[in-house]
Design goal:
This protein is α+β, with helices and mostly antiparallel strands. The chain contains nine helices and four strands, in the order E-H-E-E-E-H-H-H-H-H-H-H-H. The chain has two domains: 2-73, 3-Layer(aba) Sandwich (Glutaredoxin), CATH 3.40.30; 84-230, Up-down Bundle (Glutathione S-transferase Yfyf (Class Pi), Chain A, domain 2). Strands 2-1-3-4 form a four-stranded mixed sheet. A hairpin with a 5-residue loop joins strand 3 (51-53) and strand 4 (59-61). The longest helix has 28 residues, at 84-111.
Length: 238
């Protein structure tokens, strides 16, 4: 059986890592027989998760490469029939969303003071031994320096969330009245966009970014539609 190494479920969500959730959403939607394995980045050849170990013992890292691995073997490819221009547009959309919303989600938990106050006590129990007393603060120190270079600081949440709010609005405009981002058929790009948008919408503690996401009704319906397709048996709790 395929083994999917990823973080544990968190805050009632399948995964607090949108990259892990992206890979698992694909596996569930495509009915791939797999086993989720709680793991950590140190076990990965690239020191990043998710990664899978195939039945043949091959290790594949990176959520996009995991999807590509199964798509190559599939008789019903999700991107079948897309033009070269559409594939290029999907790539540009996915890479922009993954880069920008990754940092927005990171800021929601590590940078926003209100987010940090609720994230830290829930994070500590998942850390072994004495690490729970110093590791989160070390990680936060590093992340705050990285976020500051992007103009995101604990002192100015409005400015820090501005780019994420703008991007979500643009995604809403692109989606319009369509079921998915490229029409009425789900594509591989939807696995990523859903995972990132849902990680903003579904965490139990609100913030400016989440409030804006929930105000965009077509994005709310979009996430609900994919939940029904891939996560119907998962109980999302707040």
């Amino acid at each position: 059986m395929i083994k999917l190494h990823q973080f544990r479920p968190f805050w009632g969500m399948p995964n607090a890592s949108p990259f892990c959730m992206k890979a698992e959403t694909y596996l569930r939607y495509k009915n791939v027989d797999y086993q989720p394995v709680p793991s950590d980045p140190r076990k990965s050849p690239t020191k990043q998760i998710p990664f899978i170990v195939t039945e043949d013992g091959e290790t594949i890292t990176d959520s996009e490469k995991i999807i590509e691995y199964f798509e190559i073997q599939s008789d019903n490819k999700l991107d079948e029939g897309m033009s070269e221009a559409e594939l290029a547009q999907a790539w540009l959309m996915r890479t922009r969303v993954e880069e920008e919303l990754y940092w927005q989600i990171t800021y929601m938990r590590w940078g926003d003071p209100k987010g940090w106050d609720v994230f830290l006590p829930d994070l500590k129990p998942s850390l072994p031994g004495r690490k729970k007393y110093f590791l989160p603060f070390m990680v936060r120190f590093i992340l705050l320096r990285q976020m500051k270079k992007r103009g995101m600081t604990p002192q100015n949440t409005v400015k820090s969330y501005a780019s994420g709010i703008s991007l979500l609005s643009k995604l809403s405009d692109v989606l319009g009245d369509e079921q998915f981002f490229f029409g009425d058929k789900i594509r591989t790009v939807d696995m990523s966009l859903y995972a990132f948008i849902a990680n903003i919408m579904d965490q139990p503690h609100s913030n400016l970014l989440q409030d804006h996401a929930k105000s965009l009704q077509n994005l709310v319906v979009y996430c609900a539609r994919i939940k029904e397709l891939a996560w119907k048996d998962w109980e999302f709790t707040e």
